[in-house]
């Protein structure tokens, strides 16, 4: 059992944060045992082609048979707005001796992909993790983040209405607050106990945690990664329809896209939300943009679309 002793029994001692790198690290478990994550099978199918170009040897080696992952893939996030690039840059800057020690906490004997000089292994790990993010996360991250942010908002309401203990009881059957101690039940490693005084306890919602996950060693800052609410709906297609008159004018698909695009989204994300192929979405987006109903802008590797002022007026008048 892992125990975190809270210095103060108030919300100031407990904070919530979202970590993109944490999601990538926990998702590596799917390489070992995809059957344990049935909610994400649609995501696995959608990213199958993209994953064929990844360094899967390294990615698979970053977990073990117990589904542990090295602590450096789970840095303490500082806010709900943490950026993946900043977190990965922190990993790339770690001293090789720290990286090797964290890898040896996961593996008694390093697999071939992680053996050798750590100053050469670390850049390969960083490239592999970056590739995993680019191919399998970045196109869907706005949708993923929306689920995580909704979970944080829900936990805040529970605290306001029922108190801190009720919030912990609601996080997982493996977690509870006893007095001023947060207890996380583990079944596959030795436990530890540490105080959160001076650093607090960070709670990190995750789409890839089944219960409650903590750092392997007490030297890491206190944090618990727990299963976010709403994961079961993450890959379900949205049933969005525009006004009937607008659908009669431009068609159901294009009216639905206009209704969705009150906030920026990529064609890949829109395809997931509507349950259609990206190529089909792109055809409609091109037509809507040519008619002046959408605007677009490049954001990293993705092109994001947003309803234009003309599109707003057409939707309202529909």
Would you kindly provide a brief summary of this structure?
Keywords: DNA-binding, Transcription, Transcription regulation. The protein has 318 residues and is an alpha/beta fold.
Question: Can you offer a commentary on this structure?
Answer:
The chain has 318 residues and is an alpha/beta fold. It folds into two domains: 2-232, no CATH class; 244-317, Winged helix-like DNA-binding domain superfamily/Winged helix DNA-binding domain (Arc Repressor Mutant, subunit A), CATH 1.10.10. The chain has helices spanning 20-27, 29-32, 41-46, 48-51, 56-61, 84-92, 96-106, 118-136, 141-162, 164-171, 244-250, 252-260, 267-274, 278-290, 309-317, and strands spanning 2-5, 14-16, 175-178, 181-184, 192-195, 201-206, 212-213, 223-227, 265-266, 294-299, 302-307. Helix 11 (244-250) crosses helix 12 (252-260). The model has no long low-confidence stretch (mean pLDDT 85).
State the main characteristics.
318 residues; alpha/beta; Arc Repressor Mutant, subunit A; 2 domains; four-stranded mixed sheet; 15 helices; 11 strands; 14% strand; globular; DNA binding; DNA-binding; ArsR-like_HTH; HTH_ArsR_DNA-bd_dom
Average of the residue pLDDT scores: 85
| Terminal CA distance | 58 Å
Beta content:
5-15%
Tell how many strands the DSSP assignment holds. Answer: 11
Number of domains: 2
Helix amount? 40-55%
**Could you give a short account of the major beta sheet?**
4 strands, mixed
Tell me the strand order in the biggest sheet.
Answer: 3-4-1-5
Number of discrete helical segments: 15
What gross morphology would you assign?
A: globular
> Which regions contain 5 or more consecutive residues with pLDDT less than 50?
none
Structural class, from secondary structure content?
alpha/beta
Oligomer: single chain
The helix-strand sequence is: EEHHHHHHHHHHEEEEEEHHEHHEEH
Q: Please tell me how large the radius of gyration is.
A: 22 Å
Pfam families: HTH_20
GO molecular function, one term: DNA-binding transcription factor activity
Keywords: DNA-binding, Transcription, Transcription regulation
InterPro entries: ArsR-like_HTH, HTH_ArsR_DNA-bd_dom, Metal_resp_trans_reg, WH-like_DNA-bd_sf, WH_DNA-bd_sf
């Amino acid at each position: 059992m892992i125990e975190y002793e809270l210095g103060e029994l108030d919300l100031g001692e407990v904070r919530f944060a979202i970590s993109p790198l944490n999601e990538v690290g926990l998702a590596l478990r799917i390489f070992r045992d995809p059957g344990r994550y049935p909610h994400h099978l649609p995501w696995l199918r959608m990213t199958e082609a993209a994953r064929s170009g990844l360094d899967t040897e390294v990615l698979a080696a970053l977990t073990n048979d117990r589904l542990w992952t090295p602590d450096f893939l789970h840095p303490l996030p500082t806010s709900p707005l943490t950026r993946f690039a900043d977190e990965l840059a922190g990993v790339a800057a770690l001293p090789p001796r720290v990286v090797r020690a964290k890898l040896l906490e996961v593996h008694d004997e390093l697999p071939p992909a992680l053996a050798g000089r750590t100053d050469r292994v670390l850049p390969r790990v960083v490239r592999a993790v970056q590739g995993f993010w680019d191919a399998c996360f970045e196109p869907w991250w706005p949708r993923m983040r929306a689920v995580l942010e909704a979970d944080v908002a829900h936990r805040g309401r529970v605290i306001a209405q029922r108190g801190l203990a009720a919030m912990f009881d609601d996080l997982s059957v493996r977690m509870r607050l006893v007095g001023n101690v947060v207890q996380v039940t583990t079944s596959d490693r030795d436990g530890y106990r540490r105080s959160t005084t001076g650093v607090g306890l960070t709670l990190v919602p995750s789409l890839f945690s089944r219960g409650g996950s903590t750092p392997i060693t007490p030297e890491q800052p206190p944090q618990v990664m727990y299963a976010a609410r709403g994961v079961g709906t993450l890959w379900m297609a949205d049933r969005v329809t525009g006004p009937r008159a607008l659908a009669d004018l431009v068609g159901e698909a294009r009216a639905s896209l206009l209704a969705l695009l009150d906030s920026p989204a990529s064609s890949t994300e829109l395809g997931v939300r509507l349950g259609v192929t990206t190529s089909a979405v792109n055809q409609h987006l091109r037509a809507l943009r040519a008619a002046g109903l959408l605007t677009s802008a490049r954001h990293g590797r993705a092109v994001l679309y947003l309803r234009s002022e003309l599109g707003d007026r057409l939707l309202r008048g529909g």
